[in-house]
Structure formats: structure tokens, C-alpha cells
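Hi support team,

I'm opening this ticket because the web form for multi-chain structure prediction keeps timing out on my end. I have pasted the exact lines I submitted so you can reproduce it. The total is 231 residues across two entries, so I didn't expect it to be a heavy job. Is there a limit I'm missing, or should I split the entries? Thanks in advance, R.K.
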Amino acid sequence: QLQLQESGPGLVKPSETLSLTCTLSYDSISNSTYFWGWIRQPPGKGLEWIGSIFYSGSTYYNPSLKSRVTISVDTSKNQFSLKLTSVTAADTAVYYCAGRYCDNGVCYAFDPWGQGTRVTVSS
Amino acid sequence: EIVLTQSPGTLSLSPGERATVSCRASQSVSSTSLAWYQQRPGQAPRLLIYGASFRAAGIPHRFSGSGSGTDFTLTISRLEPEDFAVYYCHQYGSSPQTFGQGTKLEIK
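Hello R.K., no limit was hit. The queue was backed up. Here is the completed structure from your submission:
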């Protein structure tokens, strides 16, 4: 059964770049039946979609973050990654990676999810 | 951007009762692109319902989803102790994908 695991620094300084990685277990990142994504949740708040990527490299970003976000795939490591530049305290959140199953061009809801990784932006 | 508004913000009920959570969209959402998630404290969201009314694998039958257009509903027929959590709706048919603000289901 496909499992996802986030990793990366738990503390990032303001104005620096947040970098996280999501590693897949029990399936290949090149599996064209999945669409990979990042979602975040500020403390005590709701969920915000950051962006998504197909195994082929096609990316889709939330316009509210688009100027600062890059999502990429590393097939050799079976991972996909998130980079968020020029972070501020408002970027403090739990960051989740997740997959969306696709079938015949239709992609479904996020399932599975990683367990999440907490990132604090502070000097 | 499609804004999803959930109601109520908090729902206080007892085990065995029926829970109904509403999700209203600012624009029409494809019924194939509306999902519900459950999030327990300290855990990642768990997919309950996709395509507005289809239960995800392993989800008990007491969870059901309905609706179309701009109005969707999650119903839990008889609450179990483990159902007290926060619930989110999610539309994934229009970019950017968006989530509702959440409904906290608490024990009365």
C-alpha cells in the first residue's frame, strides 16, 4: 500500500527558503496513475493547497503562492520536493504531501497523505 | 477561486446521534470533484468521501455524502466515540483547489 513520508528542517529563518521532500514507499513516483501534491495547515487553522505535480513534471500552483513555490520530482530517489522562497512567520505550518489517484484522465481526492511535518519560521 | 463555507463551525452531539455537516460553494462544483476528510488531533486528514457520495476504502457505512452544484452534505448516521474530530470539505475540480474552513464535531 502506497505510503508517503515528509522530511526536512523543522526551523527556517525568515527570508530563507523552505525545502521539504516527500518519499514514496511501495510504489514508484513514475506511476502515471498518481498526481502528487503539497498541502499545509497553519497552527489551529484549516488546510491550504500549495501545488501539485504529475510524474511527467507538469506543475500546478496556488496563485497565492505561485511566485514563491517550486515543486519537482526526482525519479531516481522516488521523491518529490517543495521549495518555498522568502518565507515569513505566516508560512509556519504543518506541511503534508499527498497523492491523488488518476484513472482515464480523471483525478480523485487526496489519498494517501503523509503524516505531516511541522515547519516553524523564526529567527 | 471557489470558496467553500462549512456550517456549523462547531457541532455538539452525543454518541449515537446523527451528525449533519454542510458545505456550500461560491460557484458550482462538479459533483465528481467534492471530497470530505476527517482530521483527528495530531493526525493527517483521512479521506472519507470522494465524488460527493462515494465512500473511500475502509470507511464505515455510517458515513455518507450527498449534494450537487453548490450544496453538499456529510452525514454520520450514528456517532461513535472515534468520530469526534474536525471535518473538511474539499473541491478539486477547479484550480486552485480549495478546502472549507472545517467543522469541529465535539462531544456534548
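A quick check on our side: The radius of gyration of chain A is 14 Å. Let us know if the file doesn't open in your viewer.
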